[in-house]
Automatic annotation (TrEMBL):
Disordered as annotated region, ranges: 363-385
Every XdhC Rossmann domain range: 203-349
Pfam family, one: XdhC_CoxI
Cross-referenced InterPro entries: MoCofactor_Util/Proc, XdhC_CoxI, XdhC_Rossmann_dom
Bias (Basic and acidic residues): 363-375
Domain of life: Bacteria
Protein name in UniProt: Xanthine dehydrogenase
Residue span(s) of domain XdhC- CoxI: 13-78, 118-180
Length: 385
């Protein structure tokens, strides 16, 4: 929903009624991930996408119906057996889209959700997308780490969903939870889609060089909150790094240690060390490699890498510590320019995040996307069109 959040907020505050279709489950080569949303306004305006164009027309028609009668619908879209080029997913994937009406009466806590997202406070919307009782379908809870808003039909249901949503909030992941019809954890019949809104993950780029400027630009494009840090104030200026959210003049190891102590480093944080200067690199990596972060990479030649590893071992780093270091940084793309090198680094980060192998897809077999979900039954009939 994040991609339509601002437009939804504008229309919500104006008192309009809209319909929003959200991808809640994907199977095989689906074009958009869970959480991708499409907003349909009363004037016919469309914002966002659930499939990159494959089924938007069908979702638009369904949204018009839902906006009119207020009854939410969980609908499955997949390839037609007769004609893969009719309205459907030509990629061969399947998506479940939950379409619901949103207005000030039905979703009074939505304004609080938007305020939290804009302030960087973690928040999640939990929506019942499957239940045999039609009156339960579409009911919502808004959950923060320390409070919640909304109600579900039973205390058991409310408590189970709230606890599990906080678990998803902690790891920053959206997803579908499954329960018995009264919230039993070992049951089936009720599905709850949890749309998690976390502050963007951090990318900290150490070293105020041209490669850092390219990395900052690409990091911002990928959705990271980018910090560039260097001890040399003459180079670490906002004018030289327009793609960064902040530019910090400080000794790298001191800055990183302070950020970690303040709780501003988490499991999603990406750290790139581009200084290739031992007096900066070694103390910094001593700190970085002991943190629970997503990625630590360091730039340098093979000779620089070997020298750096020796210095880190002398400083007391273990083999397990050093195994977490991506060095020389990036994938072997034959990159030459700062921009190409930034793509190489980003490719490695993405591959490690999702379990990719960095090979040409044309030379591989099997599913394109890793961690595919098995097809499961849904409450509404699959619509193959």
């Amino acid at each position: 929903m994040r991609e339509v959040l601002d437009e939804l907020d504008r229309r919500y505050r104006a008192g309009e009624t809209v319909a929003v279709g959200t991808v809640v489950s994907t199977f095989r080569s689906a074009p958009r991930p869970p959480g991708a949303s499409m907003l349909v306004a009363g004037d016919g305006t469309v914002t966002g996408s659930v499939s990159g164009g494959c089924v938007e027309g069908a979702v638009y028609e369904l949204a018009q119906e839902v906006m009119g009668d207020g009854t939410p619908v969980l609908q499955r879209y997949g390839v037609s057996d007769d004609d893969a080029f009719s309205v459907g997913l030509t990629c061969g994937g399947i998506i479940d889209v939950f379409v619901e009406r949103i207005d000030t009466t039905g979703f009074p806590a939505f304004g609080d959700v938007v305020d939290s997202v804009h302030s960087g406070e973690p928040v999640a919307i939990a929506t019942v997308t499957e239940h045999p009782d039609p009156s339960v379908l579409g009911q919502r809870l808004v959950v923060w780490p320390d409070r919640d808003a909304g109600t579900l039909p039973s205390e058991r249901m409310h408590d189970a969903v709230t606890d599990d949503v906080r678990g998803l909030l902690d790891v920053g992941r959206s997803g579908t939870l499954h329960y018995g019809t009264d919230g039993e954890r070992r049951g089936e019949g009720m599905s709850v889609f949890v749309n998690v809104f976390q502050p963007p993950p951090r990318l900290i780029v150490f070293g105020a060089i041209d490669f850092a400027a390219a990395m900052a630009d690409l990091g911002a494009f990928l959705g990271y909150r980018v910090t560039v840090c260097d001890a040399r104030g003459v180079f670490a200026t906002a004018a030289r790094f327009p793609g960064a959210d902040e530019v910090v003049v400080d000794w790298p190891h001191r800055y990183l240690a302070a950020e970690a102590a303040a709780g501003r480093i988490d499991k999603r944080t990406v750290i790139t060390v581009l200084t290739h200067d031992p007096k900066f690199d070694v103390p910094l990596l001593e700190v970085a490699l002991r943190l629970d972060v997503a990625y630590v990479g360091a730039m340098g030649s093979r000779r620089t890498h070997d020298n750096r590893m020796a210095r880190l071992r002398e400083a007391g780093m273990t083999d397990d510590d050093l195994a977490r270091l991506s060095s020389p940084i990036g994938l072997d793309l034959g990159a030459r320019t700062p921009q190409e090198t930034a793509v190489s680094i980003a490719a490695e980060i993405i591959a490690l995040r999702w379990g990719g192998r960095g090979q040409r897809l044309g030379e591989t077999d099997g599913p394109i996307h890793a961690h595919e979900e098995p097809v499961r039954s849904v409450g509404s009939a699959a619509r193959k069109i």
